[in-house]
């Protein structure tokens, strides 16, 4: 898209805000509810919940930056520093969110796989250092383009201006210092490939592998419980308790599978479609890019909310507030009815 094509840019910008603003608002509000639930309950002030709180903060920041992430795929007239910030900062928040998510899954994975050594885990002994490790490496990697790993050249100043307007464009550059800003000029192909196949995809596969291992361990423990129950009852028939345990495990597997399909698959599709078009170096519909990026990144940001809202301890303060509001509303309507009678 041409940087001077203001009509097309405005239409794409409106589409981005129309999709991302409601989704971003929902993500922010849900994270705030869970964060306040952890902050108000002193029993939840422990190391595992500190890790989860860090993930919620990263998810909250991702929700705030969500409307700006699809804008990275559009060409805009920005100064060099503004262009770098507009691309580096959302990328840093996304990588920090992903690394925090891996850390939370790893902490819970060790709790189930090796419970005897869980309290001696390095993450528990050095909680501040572990939290710093979840935020500092993403910041360092995302900042590499600002240190020279980019595709900027001297001819990039207002490089989108065509049809014999280059002299006027260069004159304009000398006055306001703007240039055609795009992700292709900020991120080199090597940087994108390393981030996708060296950081993002291994992190997603690691989360999937840990989740699958936990389900297998849970299945084995369930079989042992059923075997002990049968030996105590001295019968071969399956009892109602075994049926309930198997049903609960089945629901857990279904919930995990649906979460992966709904939250991770859209992002994986978006990521690989972007790589295909990057390799082929072909232009694609801005509308398609906007829809895929908004749905892919937005669905991935829902993962911590699924983990948080599934825990009643995190949402208990919100439930109490809603219950009080319902009681007051019920008393108010009852009083109005009595006055009317």
TrEMBL record:
* Pfam families given in the database record: 7tm_1
TM region positions: 15-38, 50-72, 84-106, 127-144, 196-217, 252-278, 290-310
What UniProt keywords apply to this chain's record, in alphabetical order?
Cell membrane, G-protein coupled receptor, Membrane, Receptor, Transducer, Transmembrane, Transmembrane helix
| Cross-referenced InterPro entries | GPCR_Rhodpsn, GPCR_Rhodpsn_7TM, TAAR
Q: Where in the cell is it found?
A: Cell membrane
Chain ranges of the G-protein coupled receptors family 1 profile domain: 30-307
Q: Which GO terms describe its cellular component?
A: plasma membrane
A single MF term (Gene Ontology): G protein-coupled receptor activity
Q: Which residues form the signal peptide?
A: none
Topology in membrane = Multi-pass membrane protein
Q: What is its main location?
A: membrane
Q: What is this protein called?
A: G-protein coupled bile acid receptor 1
């Amino acid at each position: 898209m041409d940087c001077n094509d203001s009509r097309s840019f405005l239409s794409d910008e409106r589409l981005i805000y129309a999709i991302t603003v409601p989704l971003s608002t929902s993500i922010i509000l849900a994270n705030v509810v869970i964060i306040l639930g952890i902050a108000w309950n002193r029993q939840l002030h422990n190391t595992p919940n500190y890790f989860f709180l860090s993930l919620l903060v990263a998810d909250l920041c991702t929700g705030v930056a969500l409307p700006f992430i699809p804008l990275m795929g559009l060409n805009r007239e920005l100064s060099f520093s503004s262009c770098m910030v507009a691309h580096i900062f959302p990328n840093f928040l996304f990588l920090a969110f992903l690394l925090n998510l891996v850390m939370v899954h790893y902490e819970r994975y060790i709790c189930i796989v090796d419970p005897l050594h869980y309290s001696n885990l390095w993450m528990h002994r050095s909680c501040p250092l572990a939290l710093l490790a979840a935020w500092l490496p993403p910041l360092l990697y995302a900042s590499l383009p600002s240190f020279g790993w980019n595709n900027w050249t001297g001819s990039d100043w207002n490089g989108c201006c065509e049809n014999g307007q280059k002299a006027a464009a260069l004159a304009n550059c000398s006055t306001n210092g703007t240039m055609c800003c795009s992700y292709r000029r900020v991120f080199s192909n090597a940087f994108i490939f390393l981030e996708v196949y060296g950081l993002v995809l291994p992190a997603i596969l690691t989360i999937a592998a840990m989740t699958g291992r936990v389900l297998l361990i849970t299945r084995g423990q369930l079989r042992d419980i059923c075997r002990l129950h049968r030996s105590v009852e001295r019968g071969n028939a399956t009892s109602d308790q075994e049926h309930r345990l198997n049903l609960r495990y089945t629901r857990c597997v279904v919930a995990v599978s649906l979460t992966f399909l709904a939250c991770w698959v859209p992002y994986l599709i978006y990521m690989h479609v972007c790589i295909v078009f990057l390799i082929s170096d072909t232009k694609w519909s801005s509308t398609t890019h906007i829809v895929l990026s908004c749905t892919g990144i937005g669905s991935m940001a829902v993962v911590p909310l699924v983990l948080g809202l599934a825990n009643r301890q995190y949402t208990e303060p919100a439930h109490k507030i809603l219950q009080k509001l319902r009681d007051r509303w019920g008393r108010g309507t009852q009083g109005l009815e009595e006055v009317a009678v």
